[in-house]
Amino acid sequence: MTQIPKAPLYLGLAGTLPFLWSAATVLLPSLSDWTVATLGARFAGPYVGLFYGAVILSFMSGVLWGFATKLSEADAPKGYALSVLPALWVFFTHGGGAFQAGQLLILGFAAILLLDWHFWKAGVAPSWWMRLRLLITAVVILCLTIGVTQ
């Protein structure tokens, strides 16, 4: 694996900010109160992490679809089928309360690493892809875990 280029690294880390905000508002009641009063309840507590997590897991389907376009004609159908799994996961598992939705999002983010690895191993993801994905996924899972355990 090679060094992560600055743009993907910085943008990827910036993409974790809503997850970090979610965890911070769970751990700091005064920040949560300020957020609810200033921005609204959907931007505080586990809710922002759950909503944003659903968006990002679905977004990852698009990223993987892009990788599938680089596969050989024989392997592409499997790649396309695998790429839609994260979005379908969100569609079929989101709901049922914050605790259950959080647990299933955590499982989805952990499982997508297998798909990331598959496309990386096939040589259609950048050489630095797994380093970036492991870093971001660790932050996301930690923040979602804070949201569902408090």
Automatic annotation (TrEMBL):
Annotated transmembrane regions: 7-27, 47-67, 79-95, 132-149
Record key words, sorted: Membrane, Transmembrane, Transmembrane helix
Annotated InterPro entries: DUF3429
A Pfam family of this chain: DUF3429
Keyword Protein biosynthesis set for record: no
Signal peptide stretch: none
Tagged with keyword Endoplasmic reticulum: no
Name assigned to this protein: DUF3429 domain-containing protein
Annotated source species: Roseovarius phycicola
